[in-house]
């Protein structure tokens, strides 16, 4: 664990890192560390926060926070959640002597109608409030691994070890300030505290650090180009088989640096039905379906190639075409 965490910190240009069991575990540990500081007696109390001076955690009450309700995990620490009106001015009124941390969830949709990290973190730093950024899905670009911590100045940022890093789905990464990360580790396994369950085995640690090295070693342009080539191949096959409106975007669904192919299905066909069909196809395929919050037509599907191999592109196209022919 020492070696992997030191290597992860070096690779991500951070002062400290800790590998845990997914971004969810990382969020809970980070919040718990802000509640307890380095007081082991407080650590033994969680999730009972009664009487603890810092027992409130703030998040924005944004219109789309139910779309990704990972903030509910904060309650596992015992902390009281305080929903802050969506403005920087409201932060000052919400912060008090019981505030343990402010948790931000960055993404192009989640930040719609609420202040961004760039707007919020300076005010929170001015008020002396620890800031945790749940950036589980905010890769690529690679630079986000140090952007929130080293450039914006948050105390901790949490990433999924699976998803874009493509390590084990059962791993997550916390990066940030050494003292906070040390306290995350005190709260985690092998200690019998709130993070005992957030255990990563030696096999997972070895796989995660290997995946992180590979992720960082591959140039951004190469990643983008590889995905674009796969999506372009799919686009050409769709064009040769049927009249479908298609659009290639240069930004991922949540604002990430990756191409995305949007396909408008014919009248009478829906993305939801397409997904249900393709998931039961010979080789199951998970077609992208926009939830209502994106305000997209119900017959638009999205396709990304981040975790696709080139030879799998035809499987995806075949599944969609089979739905259209059904």
Walk me through what this model shows.
This protein has 326 residues and is of the alpha/beta class. The chain has 2 domains: 2-217, Type I PLP-dependent aspartate aminotransferase-like (Major domain) (Aspartate Aminotransferase, domain 2), CATH 3.40.640; 220-325, Alpha-Beta Complex (Aspartate Aminotransferase, domain 1), CATH 3.90.1150. The chain is built from 11 helices and 11 strands. Helix 9 (220-241) runs parallel beside helix 11 (313-325). It is globular, with a radius of gyration of 21 Å. The mean pLDDT is 95.
Describe the structure concisely.
The chain is an alpha/beta fold. Helices cover 39% and strands 16% of the residues.
Enumerate the strands of the largest sheet in spatial order, edge to edge or round the barrel: 1-7-6-5-4-2-3
- In this structure, how is the largest beta sheet organized? 7 strands, mixed
Which regions contain 5 or more consecutive residues with pLDDT less than 50? none
Q: Got a strand count?
A: 11
The dominant shape is: globular
Number of domains: 2
Number of helical elements: 11
Look up the CATH topology of the largest domain: Aspartate Aminotransferase, domain 2
**Helical residue percent band:** 25-40%
Overall radius of gyration: 21 Å
Instruction: Tell me the span between the first and last alpha carbons.
Output: 52 Å
CATH class of the largest domain: Alpha Beta
